[in-house]
Amino acid sequence: MVVFSVTTSTFLTVDNLSLVVQQSLVVATLALGQTLIVLTGGIDLANAAVMVLGTMVLARLVTEGSNSVVALVAGFLVCAVLGAISGGLVTMLNLPPFIVTLGMLTVVLAAGRLYSEGSSYPVTDNLLGVLGEGGYLFGQIKVTHGMMLAVVMFAITWYALTRTAWGRHVYALGNDPEAARLTGIHVGRTRFSVYLIAGVIYAFAAWQALGRIPNADPNAFQTGNLDSITAVVIGGTSLFGGRGSVMGTVVGALIVAVLRSGLTQAGIDSLYQDVATGVLVIAAVAFDQVVRRRSR
Amino acid sequence: MVVFSVTTSTFLTVDNLSLVVQQSLVVATLALGQTLIVLTGGIDLANAAVMVLGTMVLARLVTEGSNSVVALVAGFLVCAVLGAISGGLVTMLNLPPFIVTLGMLTVVLAAGRLYSEGSSYPVTDNLLGVLGEGGYLFGQIKVTHGMMLAVVMFAITWYALTRTAWGRHVYALGNDPEAARLTGIHVGRTRFSVYLIAGVIYAFAAWQALGRIPNADPNAFQTGNLDSITAVVIGGTSLFGGRGSVMGTVVGALIVAVLRSGLTQAGIDSLYQDVATGVLVIAAVAFDQVVRRRSR
Amino acid sequence: MTTPALQARGLVKRYGRVTAIDGADFDLYAGEVLAVVGDNGAGKSSLIKALSGALIPDEGTILLDGSETHFHSPLDARHAGIETVHQTLALAPAMDIATNLFLGREVRRTGPLGSVFRLLDRGAMREQAQKQLDALGIETVQHIGQLVETLSGGQRQAVAVARAAMFGSRMVIMDEPTAALGVKESRQVLDLIRRIRDRGLPVVLISHDMPQVFEIADRIHVHRLGRRTAVVRPADASMSQVVSLMTGALRPGDPDAPPNLVDVSVR
Amino acid sequence: MTTPALQARGLVKRYGRVTAIDGADFDLYAGEVLAVVGDNGAGKSSLIKALSGALIPDEGTILLDGSETHFHSPLDARHAGIETVHQTLALAPAMDIATNLFLGREVRRTGPLGSVFRLLDRGAMREQAQKQLDALGIETVQHIGQLVETLSGGQRQAVAVARAAMFGSRMVIMDEPTAALGVKESRQVLDLIRRIRDRGLPVVLISHDMPQVFEIADRIHVHRLGRRTAVVRPADASMSQVVSLMTGALRPGDPDAPPNLVDVSVR
Amino acid sequence: ACTQTKSGSGGGGESTGPVKIGLVTKTDTNPYFVKLRESAKAHAEKSGAQLIAVAGKFDGDNEGQVAAIENLVQQGVKGILITPSNSTGILGALKQAKEKGVLVIALDTETDPKDAVDATYATNNVTAGELEGKYVKAALGSTAPRLLMMDGTPGGTVDEQRHRGFLQGMGLKDGDPAIIGVAPTNGDQNKAQAAMENLLQRDATVNSVYTINEPAARGAVAALTAKNLAGKVAVGSIDGGCQGVADVKAGKYLATVMQFPKKMAEQGVDAVVAFAKDGKKPTGFQDTGAQLITDKPLAGLDSKDTAWGSQNCWG
Ligand SMILES: Nc1ncnc2c1ncn2[C@@H]1O[C@H](COP(=O)(O)OP(=O)(O)OP(=O)(O)O)[C@@H](O)[C@H]1O
Ligand SMILES: Nc1ncnc2c1ncn2[C@@H]1O[C@H](COP(=O)(O)OP(=O)(O)OP(=O)(O)O)[C@@H](O)[C@H]1O
Ligand SMILES: [Mg+2]
Ligand SMILES: [Mg+2]
């Protein structure tokens, strides 16, 4: 960060920070759902595809004349049902989440493209675009409704994970599924609920995405799944489950966005940016590791 | 499989089976290296990128007039060094393999594009293309040198994993790293060796890739990492490490190739193919799960 | 004879070539401490896993207060009031002591905070956890917020025992609860078992510690090769007789065997 | 006095707020069985982890046959001939018994098959594994190819003990090796310890089983609150005295305390 | 055995059932290829042929395209229409297909060498880029350009050709100080918007923007709008999708260059059907044309207005 603020004088402006947050919102929201699933020891490769299908449903329904509230409800339903399908397959058939969500990824992606009939759907609806709107704080910092929503969502999820029994069960599940089963936790029900809730969160991500880009494109966010996993892992959540936090994910998502944005603004060519991003991501996690080891 | 052989009369011909094997060779070879890493509880997101850089090095050196043996040596060196870097970061700094190989993915991909200078490199060299060549067995079945090499590589890896001390240490490492450390296994050395060997295997994959498509393209195999992980997981290897086998990976790689090929030959459009592939992959693993549960 | 609180007949569990339970019977009467003894690998843990829903037997029936029951999961058994200390302890390593004690039975705040917002009462849980550990004489836990994975073997076991003691409402099953405990702590667990019995709950105690078994058990169930061979009263038998029964050196029908409380002639 | 085979002075290990080893000393002499006793959480396991390279102490020195040593990993200690049974057993769950016994010390075929092709002699390892288990009286293992995760608690512990017994070349450290073992199996382990001592190797035995300790130990190291409080001879002390020393009810200097073999006045 | 029968069946009309035509696009994802596929499908149906559409998984998936060709040949198609991911990537498979008597036609993108296929129906992408460049240059008039470039995928053939053509049209060279920023967008609106936002953050003196396609243009314009630069910057694009034409009509950007995928698809299908009937093979490069679409025509540049555009747009 220090480097960026030195090399580019604009980087530390509040204006710019607001921009970085806006750029990271969709991936951060995806990563929020991903965090839940990773905490249970799972992984979700389909999250971005589900979200994109969500945007398609929203946009197409509105384009075809539906009321935007109806469209919103439909979008949330679709995402929730897809989450429930993943959750059901993982829970009932006891399949590895990697396989289930990989299958879902392929299917949902194709479904989105079939549903789109080859075009993308621009939306001008007020409700669907509302998350991209917002006002200025202190006359300078642009705060969108999407940002506020994201803060609320992260806060609620943090609360649910750390302050309710459900959250403890999620962690226990990822920690040691057999121990969780033996202690009499509803293992299946809890795991299923996580996939379902993640589906709903992806619907919010879809809404956020339309706020940022009022155009539903079946080809958008193709790296959204990896990006969200990256944010989760950089945030210190273990892919083996049971260890990590939502706050880590926020930091992880911001780190990636700041890197990208900072490097572009520093005028570095995109390929060199990639090199730098790769190195900096590793460095960030290594630094974190060293700090944590020292603090023990 | 049964479905395919009924709907398309050509599908069960030996000629066609040979084709499917050829189509799966590169991903299978990538998956071989991936299996080693997954067995230690790691994951390699950079394998396809490393391989692609390998093809670039081979092709560009030959195009610029190097002797093809020299180019081959250079290609192997590059892949091995990249494997060693990943291994070193994972081992020495104790970083999560997901992050390390994600960083490597970004860096290596960019490096490949920079090195390519925006073009792709067709190769006509005999040695570099040799793995795509081959003869006919019984006058019908096309057997390429690449197939033979793959059989040998899988056999050697199988042998090393199941019949040598090193292999046992790899499994022990993935099973319970702390137990492995306490029993006095060279945890770091073994883990490092796995990444190094995987790097060398990716060099073979690069050679295979040039045998199949004599053209080094920095944009090729963008889904090679996920494809190889898919083959590994379908093959029954656990992403948590310590459980699985190389033979499973062979089966996993073939299943995916057979699906793709069978669906195309059945005249199904690719979007519907995606839907079918997704469903069939889940079904294949679910079926496997049920069979295994019954046999216990 | 009264109806047993918990009864099992002809339980069988096979794992491929291995038979863990080979037609085992089991009776537990109200208000008693039943010790289950047997060699390593005799199938004691497998038996109590079947009784606590952790394992679904291939054959056989389980009767709770005389009526047939099927436990499909540990949760079913827990709902029936059966609380178990598993040999593997069943603790979540990356969670702290209080969390583990209350896992699956978390205490919520009173009032709307608890009922509407589902807010946990972390303070209360922590406090009770500390009290429970103190009652077991585990005074060396330096910090109640320590993660279970950082506890010593004995401390960990104490957490598992404390949990079962806290929540058992119908019966408590303990699989080698004192194996990792120190002298003083083992004493406390024995006292605890007595207190549970005095509350009227029957206790099943698996143990390899013969003096302990003879001190506390009302009856001793001897397990061998996957099934019950004999049930004896500590007053009727000597430790060496029981050990001989466990190892097969002595058979229940033998002239110098202690009086057997169950009929094993069927098999 | 002769030089101790293994000696430690002023070891300290802190984990954040928790102090696991708090200035512990340790002496082990050639050819003796040294019992280490102490309450749960006293720091016994942490101490022997430091002595076996599993943990690097923050402070203090370790001396092997009088010369200072630094173990950077368990491997270093193993190379020095120190073999350890950890309380956590350190077994790979998804691997079979023979594999676990020989983990890190696999036997290769003789001839070029072994030296060039590095082929393991799986038959030989299996055979020896079976022999070792039989020697420990673990006869209930129904299938030598069983994965460790499917073994009973006692069977698992037997595997860990068998491994240490097989490979110890300088000294053997056992952290509660009989905790999960049956009566007969525990006997066998005590015999085994005697046999190891008779081979001239010193043995460190951590145990909560006082009769066992008094039966086999040449000296008893009493650990309390992270450090050594006393070392007594079984002949000089009663069990209850040792227990009192462990719990702090009795202090080494007290008039009714048994004679202490080490000077603790420094602290 | 099947190998022999198949190589014999190429030229003649002895086969039964409808003529099978394979279509291999770069991806399923790009609406452009979707349109291509749909047009081909519709036209094949009209001509009594069966079209099997397969695609690579991503732009650059040579392996996927090769496998697709092999599987289509195995299926017994008469001809294959392909939009090669890479102009040199799939030559081997094309050669094998030709050897087995299958007619091979490149659509949209040329192969290198060109005679690796029997014929090519494509937009000349350099020309298309040049048209965009010329228009932007003309729109700037005498003002010195301050150019931001929203590229496609690094290393892609089409992407590279359009980029080159644009600079030719502008009379600039890569590395010219007038180019104040370049970013890859993969033709993705989201990426384009983020890239433009970040570039503007650094330097807002821009007065002209190159975009690889219309989604990229939309992303760029959104970022410009947020900075109150919309309308002050000359933005050009390429594609001719209906949404793109509508954008031009709405004044979001000045002009777009239309391609004609429908034409390519239909001509390709016709060629295969003709080949199946009488064995006649088409040859050479057939330019399917590129048309500048704008409502602000500038002198010296042939252009059509958006009314014409919305009648001829492709999706
Ligand atoms: N999942 C399993 N797969 C295969 N065998 C198993 C499995 N679980 C238990 N066994 C076998 O069943 C037998 C009984 O095991 P169990 O754990 O019930 O013994 P136990 O009496 O509790 O022994 P211990 O006193 O050592 O705890 C053992 O031989 C064990 O190896
Ligand atoms: N990694 C760790 N982090 C924090 N505290 C630890 C850690 N390891 C051990 N401790 C603490 O250090 C103390 C000593 O633990 P240790 O395992 O050495 O005890 P012990 O004497 O072996 O006990 P037991 O008889 O129960 O096995 C305990 O209070 C324990 O909670
Ligand atoms: Mg047991
Ligand atoms: Mg201990």
TrEMBL record, chains A, B:
The keyword Transmembrane helix applies. Keywords: Cell inner membrane, Cell membrane, Membrane, Transmembrane, Transmembrane helix, Transport. It is found in: Cell membrane. This is ABC transporter permease. It comes from the Bacteria. Coiled coil: none annotated. CDD domains: TM_PBP1_transp_AraH_like. The keyword Transport applies. InterPro entries: ABC_transp_permease. The chain crosses the membrane at residues 45-63, 69-91, 98-116, 136-161, 192-210, 230-259. Pfam families: BPD_transp_2 (PF02653). It is a multi-pass membrane protein.
From TrEMBL, chains C, D:
The keyword Cytoplasm does not apply. SUPFAM superfamilies: P-loop containing nucleoside triphosphate hydrolases. It comes from the Bacteria. One of its GO terms (molecular function) is ATP binding. Keywords: ATP-binding, Nucleotide-binding. Residues 6-250 form the ABC transporter domain. The keyword Nucleotide-binding applies. InterPro entries: AAA+_ATPase, ABC_carbohydrate_import_ATPase, ABC_transporter-like_ATP-bd, ABC_transporter-like_CS, P-loop_NTPase. This is ATP-binding cassette domain-containing protein. The lineage of its organism: Bacteria, Bacillati, Actinomycetota, Actinomycetes, Propionibacteriales.
